[in-house]
Inverse folding.
């Protein structure tokens, strides 16, 4: 299990957003033409572009189309631990979340709290630096590099990268040959502007926001992974909700697959929809140049890339932030593969980490 000091997140702070008003019912029945088993489904996510699937699906009504009379209640989070706590408390049923908090939630509960039921996005993470002081990876010694949170997905990736290049860093304090500074994504641009940090290993749109301030991309994390793909966002569901309401989960997954298909078919409209949802959730739209750059670096896909989750857990163990976890059963891709087959698409694998039949 994870050490007690580490509650990793995909990494955008620790303050949960308020629940948004429930969306109006679109029709009298779910997409299957039958009334679904739950009156309401509570969906958690971040107002962040790596959660573009859910942003687009909500804004374009794709989830509500499949859910019919089942109402949607949303809750926007700033941090993975808060979303996991909400799921454990029963105030969230289904969530879009990064790999580290999914692993953390699963292992800390002894495998009883959640299942990963789909993928959502890959990529969208960069190491961006001040070009005046860092021109190559060899210049990182003595510099201060921000990550969103201790033990979060990007924090683990940075620690792994630094160790691979021979830099020594204490994983708990962040002190060492390179100073690792843990800070909320929302404040990292100001920290960079003030000179408090020399760069950051961060997801989109924070990376592109730093570039807009004059930072340069030193590394796109996609370059470190086979075929340039690694999971950045999963879909998780509370196990009790999956057991009691599989029809609702399936309807949400139909909406998720439809949202990713929409993104692929019309990226321009999808970007606009995601930005509109972010503006609705945060009160502020992204700058057009930031939106364009950030969106370009993210791959939206239904495959959870299960093998990369296993690898990311291994990276956390190597970094000293995670005891070797037992991830057996963390995936249940039964409903996703049912949805994919109905669309004439092949099933996706769980890398041997699926729930037993």
């Amino acid at each position: 299990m994870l050490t007690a000091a580490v509650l990793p997140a995909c990494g955008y702070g620790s303050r949960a957003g308020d629940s948004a008003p429930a969306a109006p019912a679109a029709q009298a029945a779910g997409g299957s033409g039958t009334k679904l088993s739950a009156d309401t489904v509570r969906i958690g996510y971040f107002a962040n572009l790596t959660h573009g699937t859910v942003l687009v699906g909500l804004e374009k009504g794709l989830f509500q189309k499949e859910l019919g009379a089942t109402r949607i209640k949303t809750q926007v989070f700033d941090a993975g631990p808060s979303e996991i706590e909400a799921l454990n408390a029963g105030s969230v049923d289904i969530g879009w979340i990064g790999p580290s908090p999914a692993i953390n939630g699963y292992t800390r509960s002894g495998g009883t709290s959640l299942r990963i039921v789909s993928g959502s996005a890959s990529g969208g993470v960069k190491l961006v630096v001040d070009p005046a002081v860092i021109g190559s990876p060899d210049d990182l010694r003595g510099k201060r590099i921000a990550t969103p949170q201790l033990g979060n997905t990007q924090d683990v990736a940075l620690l792994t990268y630094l160790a691979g290049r021979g830099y020594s860093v204490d994983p708990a304090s962040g002190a060492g040959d390179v100073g690792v500074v843990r800070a909320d994504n929302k404040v990292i641009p100001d920290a960079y502007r003030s000179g408090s940090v020399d760069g950051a290993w961060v997801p989109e749109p924070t990376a592109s926001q730093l570039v807009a301030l004059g930072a340069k991309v030193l590394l796109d994390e996609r370059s470190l992974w086979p075929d340039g793909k690694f999971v950045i966002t999963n879909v998780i569901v509370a196990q009790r909700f999956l057991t009691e309401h599989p029809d609702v989960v399936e309807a949400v997954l139909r909406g998720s697959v439809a949202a990713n298909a929409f993104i692929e078919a019309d990226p321009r409209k999808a970007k606009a929809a995601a930005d509109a949802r972010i503006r609705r959730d945060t009160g502020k739209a992204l700058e057009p140049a930031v939106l364009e750059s950030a969106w370009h670096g993210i791959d939206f896909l239904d495959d959870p890339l299960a093998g990369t989750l296993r690898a990311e857990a291994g990276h956390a163990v190597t970094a000293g932030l995670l005891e070797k976890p037992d991830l057996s059963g963390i995936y249940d891709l039964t409903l996703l593969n049912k949805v994919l087959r109905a669309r004439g698409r092949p099933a996706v694998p769980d890398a041997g980490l699926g729930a037993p039949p």
The radius of gyration is 19 Å. Residues 246-265 form the longest helix (20 residues).
